[in-house]
Amino acid sequence: MGSNPFFSILKLKSVMTMTAYLLSEFLQILLIIILILIAVAYLTLFERKVLAIIQRRKGPNVIGIFGLLQPLADGFKLLMKEPIVPSNSNKLLFILAPMLSFIISLIGWSLIPFSENGYYVDIDLSLLFIISVSSIGVYGIIISGWSSNSKYAFLGALRSSAQIISYELSLTFSVISVCICSNSSNIHVIVLSQTETWYCLPLAGPALVFFIAGLAETNRHPFDLPEAESELVSGYNVEYSAMSFALFSLAEYSNILMMCALNTLLFWGGWLPPFAFLSFIPGAIWFGLKVATFATLFIYIRAILPRFRYDQLMYLGWKVLLPISIGYVFITSLLFYFL
């Protein structure tokens, strides 16, 4: 019995439609990754320029006009370097650890809305998903410290795991206050609920806690104890070189931008303008300006604040930030229950 040409045509069309759909999804994902990598590369250049201004020096100014090609030169240099794997290390985990950190740092960006309609995917539990993914990023650091078979790297990994667990609690409780006020854990809904008032005003305490916890989550000054070069010789990544080291750096700066984006979306109106008469400016521009402002603040804090001692780090996380964030959850819940 011969095949029906009608069904053959339908099958061919369905295959072509599926192929076009997969290609479209792949191109969208690739575009997001490329934009994030470009933003991360030039965030490193911007950081070096700002630190140079604060320290009264020039910073990168040789490669390209005003040093604009310096990130590309750095990437090419790291790509050309020989990767070194310690002979006594667990080689498989040693190689996989930076890849894991880098991949996890990119996953959350698929749910970040850059404007009202500018997002890749939108789910009801987008905020919970992003926080969950960011919290497992520490596994890349732990695996790298253990697999290196180095006491310095292992101690840096232990510091990082303890630090992230401590500050993850404060960060999550500060987010719960936002979810209560917006009655949703969808980031898109949270931003739209700030049309009248940004949450940075009624929830100033959780906003401050979230910002400080974000510094600790990304191992930034004054909480960069996992990478404390004065006693740990760069910490968990001390044994890494070439592109393995570059992947850790890319993951760190991608997480910094992620925290800046979450700060913007949860407390500072996301893509919403500060005043209604400025609504003619596209929302993506407002979002970019706010994220850039927070990134600049991260850099200034690195330049002006000294590093905490480890006991001070834990005291701040468990005895100051955590009670404040839990207290705000309790007060916010009571106000919404009675009002």
- Sheet having the most strands: none
Secondary-structure element sequence? HHHHHHHHHHHH
Query: How many structural domains can be distinguished in the coordinates?
Result: 2
Measure the end-to-end span: 73 Å
**Beta-strand residue fraction:** under 5%
The tally of helices reads: 12
Structural class: mainly alpha
Percent range for helical residues?
55-70%
C-alpha Rg, in Å?
22 Å
Number of E-type strands: 0
Uncertain parts? none
The dominant shape is globular
Mean pLDDT, all residues: 84
Model description:
With 339 residues, the chain is mainly α. It folds into two domains: 1-80; 86-338, no CATH class. Helices cover 68% and strands 0% of the residues. It contains twelve helices and no strands. Helix 5 (138-147) runs antiparallel to helix 6 (151-182) and helix 6 (151-182) runs antiparallel to helix 8 (204-217). The relative contact order is 0.13.
List the helices and strands and how they pair.
Blueprint: H1 5-54, H2 70-80, H3 91-107, H4 126-135, H5 138-147, H6 151-182, H7 187-192, H8 204-217, H9 229-232, H10 242-267, H11 283-304, H12 310-338
Keywords:
339 residues; mainly alpha; 0% strand
Describe the structure concisely for a colleague.
With 339 residues, this protein is mostly helical. It has twelve helices and no strands. Helix 6 (151-182) packs antiparallel against helix 8 (204-217) and helix 8 packs antiparallel against helix 10 (242-267).
